[in-house]
Structure formats: C-alpha cells, structure tokens
Specification:
Rossmann fold; alpha/beta; 36% helix; 8 strands; eight-stranded mixed β-sheet
C-alpha cells in the first residue's frame, strides 16, 4: 500500500492535521496523472489500527479486489483528512439543533465553513502542487460518512466548480437540516454534478431515541428530492439494511468506487 502521511496546519485547532494520501501502486514508476477523491475521517479509511473500533473502510483492499476482478481499470489518488476532537464542530457549518444539545449536553457545530475553506484552499492546492493530479472539476471528488457526508455535500455546494462527484454515506443532516437544505437549494450546483447517496434502514446515533433510523432515512430522501428539483441528472440512490458503522461504509465503498470510476 503506497500510503503517504503529511501534516498541514488547520486554524480550527491551531495545530497540524494529518493528511493521508493513498497513491496508485504504479505512481512512482509511471508519469501518469490521476483524478483525486477527498474524504473525511481519514484515520478510519485505510488502516484498522488507527480506525474507530479498529475497523477501517479497507479502501486499498477494496480497490485491489476490484482490480483483480477487472471491474476497474483506472486509478485514483485518495486523500483522507483526519478528524479531531473538534469533529462535531468542524463538520457542521451551523450550530446543532436542540436534539444535539440534548444528546451531548453541549452546543456543537459552527466551524464547518472554516473547515471547508481548509479543504478547498489549502488541502487541494497542496495535493495539486505536490502530486500528479488531474486538477479540473471533472476529475475531483469529495465523500464522507455521517457528519462527513454532511460536510461533503456542503463543501461541494459551496465550491460547485471544484468538486463534481459527491459521495454521501449515511447523511446526518438532522444535525441542522433546515439550514443545510436551504443552503443547497440556493447553491449553484450544476446539472452535471454527480451524487452517490447510500443510507441504511437500521441506522442510529443514539439508541435511547426512538425512530432515529427514520430520521436518517428522511435526511437522505430529502436531499435526493432537492437535488432532483435542481435537475441534477446523475443521482445514485440506495437504501440498504445496514447500520451506522465503518463495516457498512466499507461494504458500500465498493459500489461507490465502481460508480465513481465508470466514466
């Protein structure tokens, strides 16, 4: 696995943040340029030892398996941005609704705009400068799970000429859905934007709250409906029987990457 780790200063924590860069196996022996996929919760993507509950998405293994089956023939650079103790602040442009404060006993959110600028104005330029990338909008993607899906959709909507493809795994827009949907509604998303939306029918973030799974389903359905209203033509939407965890996202990543690299 050709995994490189770099650190970039981020103003939210006033510290350097680890950026994990998965390069194609032939990167050092070729002169090819590659599309780039930016993802959040970087420590959960590639290595079990750093992942939540020691269960990663196993992205490299998935890519290798699909290549061995000749289901994908093209390569991609995948950039994982680690999260921090401020995850619930950084992944939310707006402060959370009362349900969040009730769950956590503290008000969180509100740093998502700063984090979005960090991705668009620091991480992407750094990757484009230091690696052989296809820099254009058509070759640039962003994805994440739960709050990572929330901020991915926000970033793509804030920078609609930068990220064409968006992976939305288990969207947690219940954090503040009204502001989220309003922002997307008035954004300049193009009809050629591409969205991959997957949601499990058994997802929850708090087992003490009833019908949380219905809230998750409603979030993804509402996003899909809004994108359709904005005439986005390529929307891959799937509801599975999964729960809210890395094992579910690992399974769905295979479907996502096949969708992403099909063109």
């Amino acid at each position: 696995m050709n995994l490189i780790k770099k650190q970039l200063y981020i103003p939210t924590t006033k510290k350097k943040r680890t950026i994990r860069i998965l390069l194609p196996d032939d990167y050092d022996t070729s002169e090819k340029t590659y599309p780039v996929l930016y993802m959040h919760d970087g420590q959960n993507l590639f290595e079990d030892q750093t992942a939540f509950n020691h269960t990663s998405w196993q992205i490299y293994e998935t890519l290798e398996h699909l290549k061995s089956l000749q289901k994908i023939t093209s390569d991609i650079i995948i950039v994982g941005i680690d999260n921090s103790d401020l995850r619930l602040f950084e992944y939310a442009p707006w402060v959370g609704k009362d349900v969040i404060k009730g769950m956590l006993k503290v008000q969180v959110g509100g740093l998502g705009d700063v984090y979005a600028d960090f991705i668009a104005k620091k991480v992407k330029p750094y990757i484009d400068k230091n690696f052989r990338t296809l820099k254009a909008y058509e070759h640039t993607s962003i994805a994440g799970s739960s709050m990572g899906a929330y901020i991915s959709t926000y970033i793509a909507s804030k920078y609609p000429s930068m990220f064409k493809n968006v992976g939305v795994f288990s969207l947690a827009s219940w954090f503040n859905e009204e502001d989220f949907l309003t922002f997307i509604k008035y954004s300049k998303l193009n009809i050629d934007h591409r969205f991959f939306i997957s949601i499990g029918k058994n997802e929850t973030s708090d087992n003490t709250l009833k019908n949380f799974n219905e809230l998750y389903l409603e979030n993804s359905r509402n996003l899909k409906a809004l994108l359709e209203e904005k005439n986005v033509e390529d929307i891959f939407y799937i509801e599975t029987d999964d729960q809210h965890n890395e094992l579910a996202w690992r399974k769905m990543f295979s479907t996502f990457i096949l969708w992403l690299l099909k063109n």
